[in-house]
Amino acid sequence: MNNTELKEFILTVKQTCRKTSYSPRGFLSPIRLLYRLLQQFDRKFRVNAWVISGDRSLKTSITTIFTGNKKNKNYLNNLLFNNLCSEVHIGKIWRWNSIKIVHKKPPGCSLRISEIHKNSRKLPGNKASFFIPCWVGGEADLSADISTIIHKKSLNSDLNKIKQGNIQFEITKEKSRFDNFYYTMYLPYVTRVHKNRVIPLSYETMKKNFKRCDLLMVKKDSEFIAGQLIIYNNDIPRLWFTGLKNGNTDYLKYHITGAMYYFAMTYLKQKGCKRVHFGLTRPFLNDGVFQYKKKRNLQITDSSKIGFLIQPLGKLTTVKEFFLKNPFIYLEKGKFYGAVFIDNDQLHSQEDYEKIYETYYIKGLSKLTMYLFGDNQKNMKEAIPPKLFGRMSLHSAETLFEK
């Protein structure tokens, strides 16, 4: 257990003691305290481990060993295998030993993903690994004209859809409207979209924070069909949770997502807010939600403390496709970087570099790092456009697979 994990455990003990000390049945409090401590300890410091296999294509397959919680495992199953996979649960291990499980990996495993704290120590000499936060957050500047916040093409599309669909919004703080939002919009929507990966916020927790929120309700004609909670933290509003009526994704054809972003930014700008936080997003650069927010001039500013330490274990051919299809944001020495993996036959001119940069670079990244599969790395490196020097670098992907 490192210092960070020890501090987390001490904080957990203190919080549990405070909760238990107010027990109406004082003579049971020591037993309850012990029970809760054991629960908290197990939840925080012991993680499950699985071996997961699935066909990535007709030609290749990949076997992964994953340590962490079930929801993140389900998310990665969908990312890697589109949920077409088999898995074997191999038990629970201490969180601080999850990295070392690589030494005991089952035969055939070609990728290891460990859910760890960002301050946890990596294995000495473990160069072939990335720490990918489970979630990244970003902000947008509201002081400028809204046409500079939302890309012109996206803004025009939003405004046209709003006008054509007769979409309007209202701001409320009424408790009854909050209840309607939680039970008929938020909960059905996240359950339908995220399925077995969903981690819904409890009604009690959301209600407790509602006093710090505005509830933006979206209606088409006279029917309320969507909502969004805006929470205020340290004077920076955050687009917190959204929902669709009865979880019905058919409402998306009215461009409701774009309307909610536009309404929220217009409302907050009128209130005099200088910045807005767009909430948390998965850090994979091809993710649809991530790309949608990127068009809103997002700047990466923060991330979750827990993330995935990802490391290739096997031959290049077995994991190459995963890296090619899943560019991501990773943390290195407290800074955000983007990792994009490409075949050398994708790069023919400076325009190819510029297209990759435009597609994947987002403000807040220190650099976009490209990993090249194949030869001619030196010649390719010389082709990076001068205007992208310092923003983009090129490395050999093969070095990630050297033992």
UniProtKB/TrEMBL annotation:
Name the UniProt record assigns to this protein: BioF2-like acetyltransferase domain-containing protein
Organism taxonomic ancestry: Bacteria, Pseudomonadati, Planctomycetota, Candidatus Brocadiia, Candidatus Brocadiales
